[in-house]
Amino acid sequence: MFSIERWQEIFEGLFKNKLRTVLTGVSVASGIFILVILLGAGNGIQNGIQKQFEQDAVNRISVWPGITQKEYNGLGIGREIQLHNSDYNTTIRLLSDYIEYKSAVYSVWSGNMVFKNETGTYRVEGVHPDYQFIENASVAKGRFLNQADITNYEKHVVIGQKVADDLFKGEEELLGQELNISGTIYKVIGVFTDPGGEREESRVYIPISTAQRAYSAGDKIRSLVFTLKKNVDFDNAVAESHDFTQKLETFLRARHTIAPDDQGALHINNSLDQAKNIYIITGGVKGFFWFVGICTIIAGVVGVGNIMLIIVKERTKEIGIRKALGASPFSIISMILQEAVFITVVAGFSGLVAGLLVWEFVGPSIETDFFTHPEVDFNVAITTLAILVVAGAFAGFVPAYRAAKIRPIIALRGD
Hints:
MacB_PCD, two-stranded antiparallel ribbon, six-stranded mixed β-barrel, transmembrane, 14 helices, alpha+beta, 19% strand, elongated
């Protein structure tokens, strides 16, 4: 029940000891402020890492060959492993139940490109049509490669936005333009953008069959890239990716006569494994931030408890008189608890607002590739306020209980 007299007493007590009240409030506010800053930083790290994974499909598995480091079945060390079209075709036939998107890749790191008077060196990748989805690329103009381009060895090219900006300056219509790539003329059929930004957009895609012919590669390929079918359960998705990776590795090692423990001859990268490890790390970091923040809040709450003990000591005679006049133990406890909760909540809310304002105005200016959107969501803010209420009640309970146990005759005798 609301009592204006009770609130008048609380405010009179607070203003009577301004310095003590301010210092107590600062200790609580700083605890909440630090918690909000740490949680925002944890979210910023997590968001930044998730943004990096968005550059490519999260369930991506890449395979590229290396050089043997161990003798096996009479074959010596230093043998260079070479993948071929048949490796790709056999893999997708044997493991089709797992695969969502697939592509073999024949890449050239430095492709010399000329358009009219503009020249540049960019990465050239011969790929299959699915590569658009593996890379999370979006077609801004025209279209991506299709199967007809592969089958007919078409000299078609899809260029990244960075390449378009560099070489096709002032051109209103890019589609249909002719681009000279390493002495071969290609027709521009599309322009793509990529979440990875300029680094990913500084490349061009051509049909893999055309790339193998243009660069005299025969049926050689540089790498295999797959994404697996979606699974709503992350742990099941990781298990399926491990199963797929194991079967793929076993097949390729047997096909190319590679020792089972030769780590240098065949490299397989599973992005789900990386995602899982990083999520575990970021989860641990956020848990540590919560721990530090809660400890800081506890320090502030202990300060509030100590102050309330002092207040009870100072008001011993007053409490004795109240009890002598018939005040119940519950009314004494509620009086002390109300003051403790009020101090804690007001100070804590101030710290909460200050922390949110810091991330609102300072956060955008400190964003990096691995740190973005350092913010605290609404649910966390509500949780923090709930913690404040509980902390305030806890801070005032022991002093309140002690006040309720005071015997009037003893209180009136005290100095």
